[in-house]
Amino acid sequence: MDRLFVYGTLRSVFQNEFARLLAEGENLLGGGRVHGKLYDIGRYPGLVLSSAAEEWAVGEVYRLRDADRTLAILDRYEGADFTRVSGDVLLDTGEPSPAWVYVYNRPVDEQRRILSGNYLDRPGQG
To answer: The pTM is what?
Structure first.
């Protein structure tokens, strides 16, 4: 699989080295969303997948040119708190697409949930 859904600090608006790796070296297909709940867990968000029709996390989808290489780098960056899984993403065009998704695998605090599902909407932004 050569697609990756990103919803936090890997999105194209961020300037960290890993967001730049994607923005400069991969093909941004556009916006998308995945069924899930998004949490502000500090310096970055965590996604917990959901089967509820009304629960969405918003982000971007990249087509990876060298998926094995890029994913190996991102797996190290994401670390033990995240697991990369295959997910079903709905592109903003309405097209469904399978993509890799990094899912948070630690306990979450419901009071830290980002209700909009968009990490850019967290308090203190814009």
So the answer is: 0.94
Summarised one tens digit per residue, pLDDT across range 57-73 is 999 999 999 999 999 99
Average pLDDT, whole number, for the chain?
A: 94
- Show the tokens assigned to 124: 């203190």
CATH number of 3-121: 3.10.490.10
Among candidates 3, 7, 2, which has minimal Cα distance to 102? 7
Q: Look at residue 43 and tell me whether its pLDDT is greater than 50.
A: yes
For 46, the enclosing helix (H) or strand (E) is strand 45-49
The 3-state secondary structure of 75-119, one letter per residue: HHHHHHHEEEEEEEEEECCCCEEEEEEEEECCCCCHHHECCCCCH
> Domain locations in the chain?
3-121
